[in-house]
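Encode chain A's predicted structure.
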Amino acid sequence: MRHLLHAGLIAAIFVIPATPARGGPCPPVYNLTWGNGGVSPGQFDGPYGVTVDESGAVYVADISNDRIDKFDASGNFDMMWGSGGAGDGQFDGPIGLATDANFIYATDYGNNRVQKFTLTGTFVAKWNLLGGIPAYLRAPRDIEVGSDGLIYVADSGNHRIEVFSSTGTYLR
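Encoded structure for chain A:
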């Protein structure tokens, strides 16, 4: 699905009216907000990336808590996964998130990799060749699943966009 926003302390959802008031621009209308500072489940210490899956579940990458929090469409906490470290399912600064019909992809900035999980947080795969040549990631920040099913990664340390298959095979 679509990547929604970066940074901030509170996740917020806005609705834009279809008809402008008095012919002017349509201001956003506050609809829903959740979260506060902390380390407990459902709290944020550095929310950064947000994505929404096809069912409306909201995933938040918390860069300082080194985890992903999952909420339902109403903002109710569902689950979280991840911890600090370099092992499978661990993070050193998750930043970007993207989903397709079955998986969530997370850029792991400090570990120079992308991790793939089921929508319930089970680790599936990672790709993380560190370096400057194509297919090697250095400080990946953002990620998106294209309409073609390919994974597009903003590789900030190498100043480029890299394209992978959904299994992590480098394509271009």
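Confidence is low (pLDDT under 50) at residues 1-11.
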